[in-house]
Amino acid sequence: DIDECATSPCKDHQYCLNTDGSFSCKACDASCTGCTGEGSHKCKTCASGYMKEDEKCTDIDECNLPEKVCVKENEDCVNTSGSYKCVCSEGFEDKDGTCVQT
């Protein structure tokens, strides 16, 4: 068997899996920017919104950062994988970018 992976035939966001007589390109974990294998512990670098923690790329909870990310009045922060979103607090709705009472 020739190790086709030695020539790095895959794209930047993929890793190479050598198989008997061939190879396949597999997608890197969403937390990675480039990887050497499967999972968040095989990242070359962490993707935006992720940080290296215990040798793995883990999601940054932007909602718990000291500096508030959702600064409008009556707005709450909701953490998402690799990011966050700002939503109107309960009892309020978005009207042209402002949270007004419903």
Topology:
Layout (H helix, E strand, L loop, with lengths): L13 E6 L2 E6 L4 E4 L7 E4 L3 E4 L2 E4 L15 E6 L2 E6 L3 E4 L2 E4 L1
Antiparallel strand pairs: 1-2, 3-4, 5-6, 7-8, 9-10
Structure description:
Belongs to the CRELD family. One of its GO terms (molecular function) is calcium ion binding. Keywords: Disulfide bond, EGF-like domain, Repeat, Signal. Helix content is 0%, strand content 47%. The protein is mainly beta and 102 residues long. The protein folds into two domains: 4-59, Hormone Receptor, Insulin-like Growth Factor Receptor 1, Chain A domain 2 (Ribbon); 62-94, no CATH class. The strands form five sheets. The chain has a two-stranded antiparallel ribbon. It has a two-stranded antiparallel ribbon with strand order 3-4. A two-stranded antiparallel ribbon has the order 5-6. Strand 5 and strand 6 form a beta hairpin. The mean pLDDT is 96.
